[in-house]
Amino acid sequence: QVQLVESGGGSVQAGGSLRLSCAASGFTHSSYCMGWFRQAPGKAREEVARLRQNGGTSYPDSVKGRFTISKNNADDTLYLQMNSLKPDDTAMYYCAAGRGWSDGSCSQLAYWGQGTQVTVSS
Q1: What pLDDT, on the 0 to 100 scale, is given for residue 29?
Q2: Sheet holding 18-25, edge to edge
Q3: Which of 83, 91, 89 is nearest to 16 (CA)?
């Protein structure tokens, strides 16, 4: 069974940085697509980064140039480096995973972690 455990959240002032980690285990396939999502109170869940099996990445305009997704393939740990943080980045951040293919396509991300809170103060 796939398990995802996030860590690294916390409180930081605007302009600061945080690195989130997602320890993944239980993968039964070698090809996965993984991503980071966030949800603030009263707002819809938003995808903030995706890493595809072919190494491709994607970000929404709201975080492009500030957030970087990466993965350590040796231990299946997913990271989200967040720089130049803004108060609008305050949210619960979730790691998610699903099947991925070499053409960069992804299945629905069926596996989710429990989340880690990020709070950015002005």
Answers
A1: 67
A2: 3-7, 18-25, 77-82, 67-72
A3: 83
Tell which residue, 116, 9, 101, 88, has the closest CA to residue 56: 101
- Provide the residue type at 100 as one letter: G
Q: Six-digit token pair at 62?
A: 């709201």
In degrees, rounded to 5, the angle at the alpha carbon of residue 85 between the alpha carbons of residues 79 and 91 is 70
Residue 6 burial (10 A CB sphere; 0-12, 13-18, 19+): buried
Band (pLDDT 50/70/90 cuts) for residue 28 is: confident
Give Dmax over CA atoms of the chain in angstroms: 43
Q: Rounded mean pLDDT of the chain?
A: 94
Average the pLDDT over each of 29-33, 34-38, 43-47 and give the range with the smallest value.
Answer: 29-33
Neighbours of 65 (CB within 10 A): 9
